[in-house]
């Protein structure tokens, strides 16, 4: 009998490049998802994709997940390698998450694969397993935000995640707010300066201790100018997440939008992970009547921008709503 699992994509509202130093983030799971229809009871993992070329056909202990072809199979193989299941599956994958657009299509595939392979455990354990898989598949030292919000999302809410304790708190998104995502450019974090940013944060922590505990004032005293800029971004961004949660809870969309714009400027000027096309899109969005604020979202160097707007204010882009996390369907 065919079974089904589904895992949503995500958009991050605020709290960018903070997760891998144990900081605060506020993403939401979105109403676009990756689905796997399958049956169990095979000694291999065999998946075809409706949207991507090639067929993934793996043993239950794949030797080198990062080398698997077609390349989307790397994520599947890395999850299989992490789980070492006794029993495989045969089925197909389909998705309406734009692939390679920065909306976590790869993390959704990881989480869906783990559920299809019979993962049992908490949302945090599922996210931890899939984060390890992402590292195996790509070698990029990403944080836990994407996998955790995909595993634990709550309908109608963003999730404020403390990436150190892994506690998460659903924060209601006011009904009179619309979240709109605009695609700017395809990107992959492999080969991007993402890994270098992670290293710069480590250098900042070697100088002043954990960034999640540091104040912007402490960060501003770091001698190396680049490391200082990165640390000032992270420490101010952590504060913006808390203020953003307060603004959403108070229904103060003007304040929430202004914090998104501050976040964007910090990512552009201090973290240097935006692009001219993303900056232009954010400027244009912010000049549109009914838009409270906008920013780049995700790892940057391409991907998407996200806007907080009055319903109907924007006619281009995808209106997304917050949905529950991954599940067996
Ligand atoms: C990517 C990573 C996340 C996070 C963001 C930046 O999406 O997968 O872990 O670091 O970039 O906030």
Structural write-up:
There is one protein chain. This protein has 329 residues and is of the alpha+beta class. The chain folds into 2 domains: 168 residues, Ribosomal Protein S5, domain 2; 148 residues, 2-Layer Sandwich (Alpha-Beta Plaits), CATH 3.30.70.890. 36% of the residues lie in helices and 26% in strands. The strands form 2 sheets. Strands 1, 2, 3, 4, 5, 6, 7 and 12 form an 8-stranded mixed beta sheet that branches. Strands 9-10-8-11 form a 4-stranded antiparallel beta sheet. Strand 3 and strand 4 form a beta hairpin. Helix 2 packs across helix 3 and helix 5 packs across helix 7. The protein is globular, with a radius of gyration of 19 Å. The mean pLDDT is 97. Bound molecules: alpha-D-galactopyranose. Alpha-D-galactopyranose (GLA) binds next to helix 4.
Instruction: Output the helix-strand order.
Output: EEEEHEHHHEEEHHHHHEEEE
CATH class label of the largest domain: Alpha Beta
> Sheet bearing the most strands, described?
8 strands, mixed
Could you say what the CATH architecture of the largest domain is? 2-Layer Sandwich
Low-pLDDT stretches: none
Percentage of residues assigned to helices = 25-40%
Q: C-alpha Rg, in Å? A: 19 Å
**Chain-averaged pLDDT:** 97
Tally of DSSP β-strands: 12
* Chemical compounds bound to the protein: alpha-D-galactopyranose
Work out the count of structural domains: 2
Strand content: 25-35%
Query: Tell me, what's the shape?
Result: globular
CATH topology of the largest domain: Ribosomal Protein S5, domain 2
Number of helical segments with 4 or more residues: 9
- Distance separating the two termini: 13 Å
């Amino acid at each position: 009998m065919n079974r089904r699992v589904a895992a949503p994509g995500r958009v991050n509202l605020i709290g960018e490049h903070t997760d891998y130093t144990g900081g605060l983030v506020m993403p939401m799971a979105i109403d676009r998802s990756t689905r796997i229809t399958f049956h169990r009871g095979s000694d291999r993992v065999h998946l075809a994709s409706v949207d991507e070329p090639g067929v993934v056909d793996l043993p239950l202990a794949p030797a080198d997940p990062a080398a698997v072809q077609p390349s989307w199979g790397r994520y599947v193989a890395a999850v299989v390698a992490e789980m070492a299941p006794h029993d495989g599956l045969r089925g197909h994958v389909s998705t309406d998450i734009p692939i390679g657009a920065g909306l976590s299509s790869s993390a959704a595939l990881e989480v869906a694969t783990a559920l299809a392979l019979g993962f049992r455990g908490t949302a945090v354990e599922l996210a931890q397993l899939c984060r390890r898989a992402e590292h195996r598949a790509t070698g990029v030292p990403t944080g836990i935000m994407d996998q955790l919000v995909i595993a634990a999302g709550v309908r109608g809410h963003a999730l404020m995640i403390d990436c150190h304790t892994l506690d998460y708190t659903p924060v209601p998104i006011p009904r009179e707010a619309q979240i709109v995502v605009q695609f700017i450019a395809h990107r992959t974090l492999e080969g991007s300066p993402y890994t270098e940013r992670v290293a710069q944060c480590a250098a900042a922590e070697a100088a002043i201790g954990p960034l999640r505990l540091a104040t912007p004032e402490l960060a501003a005293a770091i001698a190396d100018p680049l490391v200082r800029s990165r640390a000032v971004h992270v420490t101010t961004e952590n504060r913006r997440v808390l203020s953003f949660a307060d603004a959403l809870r108070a229904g103060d969309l003007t304040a929430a939008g202004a914090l998104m714009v501050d976040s964007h400027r910090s990512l552009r000027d201090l973290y240097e992970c935006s692009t001219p096309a993303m900056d232009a899109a954010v400027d244009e969005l912010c000049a549109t009547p009914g838009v409270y604020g906008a920013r780049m979202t995700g790892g940057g160097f391409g991907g998407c921008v996200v806007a907080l707007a009055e319903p109907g204010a924007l006619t281009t882009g995808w209106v997304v709503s917050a949905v529950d996390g991954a599940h067996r369907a």
